[in-house]
Amino acid sequence: DAKTTQPPSMDCAEGRAANLPCNHSTISGNEYVYWYRQIHSQGPQYIIHGLKNNETNEMASLIITEDRKSSTLILPHATLRDTAVYYCIVAAYSGGGADGLTFGKGTHLIIQP
Amino acid sequence: DVKVTQSSRYLVKRTGEKVFLECVQDMDHENMFWYRQDPGLGLRLIYFSYDVKMKEKGDIPEGYSVSREKKERFSLILESASTNQTSMYLCASSFQGAEGYTFGSGTRLTVV
Which of A56, B17, B88, B90 lies in disulfide reach of A61, CB 3.0 to 4.6 Å? Predict the structure, then answer.
């Protein structure tokens, strides 16, 4: 799997949009960008994924650059409950997710009241 | 909702003991995984299984073994626990694609 680079920590004010960047300059053509988050004392939770088009769901939006070398996860109206470590992961869609995901160190997002 | 249940939230064991960490999922997922998480090192894959009685080594399998006798249950075994195996252990299962991972809440193991 390609490696990703994320800032170790970020702050965001409650109610504002949180924009979390991720660099994945060695991503392959068949690899997707996945985002998970881990709230303190819990296991990681899936947020969103994409290949090359921008994606949106009820939790977040994912913006992938045209060259696919970087992406941004957007939490549109951050709340205190969004304080967590956010992981950007690049992986091929294996059809079964059978090989295990490689988690980096992620970004610790702290939402300030 | 898919649930992945880990049998213990906290566990304290002595050096040299044989330790079993149990994980059960209730959604008929084919794939199951064991990770450990340590400060500054993130999550690291220990073992995974894509079918009953099948197992594959992850990135750090040394000192561990696994058992998958039934589809819903995946056990991690520390044959002889050591203090460097003190860690948070996370179990996960998946159905399809890397977006389908569901994690348990973790077992914090302390080996003394």
Answer: A56
d(CA B76, CA B23): 8
Select from B31, B6, B26, B30 the least CA-distant residue to B90.
B6
Q: Among B101, B105, B107, B108, which would you mutate to test the A interface (most chain A Cβ atoms within 10 Å of its Cβ)?
A: B101
- Largest Cα separation within chain B, whole Å, is 39
Shortest distance, CA A2 to any CA of chain B (angstroms): 14
Contact A36, B101 (CB under 8 A): yes
Q: How remote is the C-alpha of B100 from its chain's centroid?
A: 17
In chain A, residues with a C-beta closer than 8 Å to the C-beta of B59 are 102
Collapsing DSSP to helix, strand or coil, B98 comes out as helix
Residuewise pLDDT in 10s, chain A (113 residues): 558 999 999 999 999 999 999 999 999 888 899 999 999 889 999 999 999 989 999 999 999 999 999 999 999 999 999 999 999 999 887 654 567 888 888 999 999 99
Collapsing DSSP to helix, strand or coil, A92 comes out as: strand
CB B67 within 8 A of CB B79: no
Closest approach of chain A CAs to the CA of B16, in angstroms?
27
- Chain B residues whose CB is inside 8 A of the A48 CB are 99
- Radius of gyration of the CA atoms of chain B, in A: 13
